[in-house]
Amino acid sequence: MSHEPNNTIAVAMSGGVDSSAVAALLRSQGHELVGLTLQLWNQRRLAGHEGMPEAVQGRCCSIDDVYDARHVAEQLDIPYYVVNQQERFEADVVKPFVSEYLAGRTPIPCTLCNNHLKFDQLLTTARQIGADRIATGHYARNHFDESRQRWILSRPADHSKDQTYFLFGLTQEQLSRTLFPLGEMQKPAVRVMASEAGLDVATKPDSQEICFIPGGDYNTFLKAYLDEQNQPLPDTAGELVTTTGEVIGHHQGIQSFTVGQRKGLGLTSTNPLYVLSIHPDSHQVTVGADEELFSRDLYANRLNWISIPDLTEGEEIRVSIKIRHRHTPALATLRRAGDDLVHAIFDEPQRAITPGQSSVFYQEDEVVGGGWITQPPKI
């Protein structure tokens, strides 16, 4: 798995301060660089559809970001290319997102994008232009462990910027050819470095939104996208029920709900009610009290292992698990529960374990692996 790379590095340039600082840092170290930006989504594509803005500013992968990335490459005097991956992005990220959401699950497009598109395509393009490695602005660390003969992915020095939750799907090959130069740095120092390099993006705000969903309004995007495809919004209207099966209301579609949601239920109640679970087959949405959102059990499939080659039948390991990006990793026992399925039992109940979200397994700062939260197997 270990190899001797050549000196040319392809830098994934998003137009933000982090990837720009990476390019400036590597340039100052004397590396031969090529800047690459993936063009993933036409921000004006759904303009004019009901509820969608005419133009979108200040988000990941926008036209403005491409302009900023190109300008940074000019400032650093490095070759720069834009790689059009809009068709693949729609097939591998947007369409699965739509399908998952319509099925009552809450997917994470950024993880899908990293797993299935960004790193894979960046490495392919890098090789085509003579670069053996890529560097990104992600806050993460990786190294080769001789004793295990595996590449290890770890949380960064700045835990507040940790992005390993979105990177659990990286393969050993991808990790072996990827550099994370910001892994040892704190975010304020990165901005200082960008400023000292004279980069105009040094004070640019971080992008927070999903690149193709303005304002985080999933429902409006779903309707606009399906309208563009001449597809009707599926009729998933159904009942709002309690955990005992009592019908206490009706809803217009399961795509309007996510586990843990409180607002928008259309119910009046003495005590606050939350979405506990969504049932795509029956179109029922179960609601209940906040304390009913807590569970010790998590099931995950579509697994990828990093620090270990696999989890064998009958083996148990102790890990900390993140069930959301901002979730504090919680201690659990992890075991195999079937083919491409694991079962985690948390030491303490966790709130809103949500099907469709990523679950990432850690041992201290190392990423053991991860998978996608799914419903418990039917007995």
Automatic annotation (TrEMBL):
Every tRNA-specific 2-thiouridylase MnmA-like central domain range: 232-288
Localization of this protein: Cytoplasm
GO MF annotation: an example: tRNA-uridine 2-sulfurtransferase activity
Active site (UniProt): C113 (nucleophile), C211 (cysteine persulfide intermediate)
Location of region: Interaction with tRNA: 161-163
Name assigned to this protein: tRNA-specific 2-thiouridylase MnmA
Catalysed reactions listed for this entry: S-sulfanyl-L-cysteinyl-[protein] + uridine(34) in tRNA + AH2 + ATP = 2-thiouridine(34) in tRNA + L-cysteinyl-[protein] + A + AMP + diphosphate + H(+)
Phylogenetic lineage: Bacteria, Pseudomonadati, Acidobacteriota, Terriglobia, Terriglobales
One Gene Ontology term from the biological process aspect of the record: tRNA wobble position uridine thiolation
Origin species: Edaphobacter aggregans
Role noted for this protein: Catalyzes the 2-thiolation of uridine at the wobble position (U34) of tRNA, leading to the formation of s(2)U34.
Enzyme Commission number, as recorded: 2.8.1.13
GO cellular component terms given for this protein: cytoplasm
